Amino acid sequence: METHNLRDRSRVNILETVLQEAPVTRDRVITKTGLSKATVSRVVEELRLDGFLADGTVKEHTGRGRRSTYVDLAGGLGFVVGIDLGANSTRMIAADLRGRHLGSLRTATPSGLSTRDAVEWVAERLAQLTGNPSLDGTLAGVAVALPGRVMGNQLTRMAPSNQHLAGTQFHSLLERQLDVPVYLDNDANLALLSEMTSGTAAGRSDVALLSVSTTFGSAICVNGAILKGRSTSLGELGVLGAGPQGAPLDRFLSVNGIMETAKSRGIHLDAIENLWEKPLTEELQALSDDFTEALTAASAVFAVTFDPEAIVYNGRLRPLMESKMADVEARLIALLSTSPHLLVTPQDGYSVAKGALEAAIQEARLMTLQRVLDRGEETAS
Fold first, then answer.
1. Which of these, 70, 234, 235, 337, has the minimum number of CB atoms within 10 Å of its CB?
2. What strand order describes the sheet that includes 24-25?
3. Across 40-44, 163-167, 244-248, least confident range
4. Do the beta carbons of residue 212 and residue 323 sit within 8 Å?
5. Angle at Cα 65 formed by Cα 21 and Cα 50, nearest 5°?
6. Residue 314 CB contacts under 8 Å (≥ 6 apart), including other chains
7. Is 278 in contact with 293 (CB distance < 8 Å)?
8. In a 3-state reduction of DSSP, which class is residue 23?
9. Contact 124/174 with Cβ under 8 angstroms?
């Protein structure tokens, strides 16, 4: 049994290295895993015959010794898709398991669909994206980012345009329709994953994110792990009566909330862009100042609760946030004598979809490693 356990660990360590760095030289695999050259050669050959790995090109010879060959992932492992199913727009990105971009799609999100119709619509858009002949293999998994709260496969507190997706039916129907594993999470968590993987917060381990868009959301990463609570209450800053005049924060930190607040005050606001694209009337300036106060309050909650290295801001109200950062930082320093790094993400409509894609890649890699273990057990028996 111990021999089989050692063999399985060697297989997993080698495949994990290739998954993270493919294409990678055999010399690099030896260095990274600490395994002997003979063991690496034997296991790579086993994994190649089992359909997990493939021979790569030969590394150019630049010195003494033999040239090193590359090891790559087998094409048959397939590809994954990350989906940002936003309230207004849907974005999809396809990639192979080493993260190589294979295609993307952007379209308006339809409203008023039943859950079943929404699942069929997503499947049709996926078929449109994955019909690209450059995609090698079959669909291996999908991750979907949603504007709402997600607890496992249960969707709650969805954005008004996505209320029909609440419950568990969306997940079960989509998984059945696509016949692949489907991972769900809220858009704030996956936006933060994107920022920590390759965005403004890359290399940091303690980061908070405020998503100020059509709806308001937030996410927290501590010691490199995005926090998931026992319930959907974690990160629900929008319900706190910490805004101007004691109003809930999401009345000032979301497009829907600001438009409702403007209406209740009798302020004429044609479009949310009026808050940063035109000279402001006295009433709009007051609304803009309230936004600053609410943004400072939400940032302070994160600062005193989690003491993050940085707070990342993204979403549709990015231009307004950019104009407020110096003021927010000054207020935090006056309040707390310090401030985390405040980072507004660059304009990139695919940031949430990139986070969903990263989640899909991580899930598919875990399943691939499990398949290696299962294959080892079959061989042992």
1. 337
2. 24-25, 69-73, 53-58
3. 163-167
4. no
5. 40
6. 191, 195, 209, 210, 211, 212, 213, 344, 345, 351
7. no
8. coil
9. no
Residue-wise DSSP of 33-50? H---HHHHHHHHHHHHHT
What phi and psi values does residue 60 have, to the nearest 5 degrees?
Answer: -60, 140
Report helix, strand or coil for 99. Answer: coil
Q: Where are the beta strands (DSSP E) in 74-128?
A: 79-85, 89-96, 101-108
Q: Which two tokens stand for residue 198?
A: 């390759």
Q: Are 368 and 73 in contact (CB under 8 A)?
A: no
pLDDT digits (tens, 9 = 90+) for 185-243: 999 999 999 999 989 999 999 999 999 998 899 999 999 999 988 887 888 899 999 99
Q: Which two tokens stand for residue 172?
A: 């079960």
Q: What is the CA radius of gyration of the chain?
A: 24
| Cβ count near 203 (within 10 Å) | 6
The DSSP code for 228 is: -
Q: Where are the alpha helices (DSSP H) in the chain?
A: 2-21, 26-33, 37-49, 115-130, 169-178, 187-198, 255-264, 274-277, 282-306, 318-336, 351-380
Residue 266 exposure: Cα atoms within 13 Å on the Cβ side: 0
What pLDDT sits at residue 65? 54
- 168 contacts: CB under 8 Å, gap ≥ 6: 153, 154, 155
* Total-model pTM: 0.88
Cα(140)–Cα(144) distance, rounded to whole angstroms? 14
Q: What is the pLDDT of residues 73-105, one digit of tens each?
A: 888 888 999 999 988 899 999 999 988 898 999
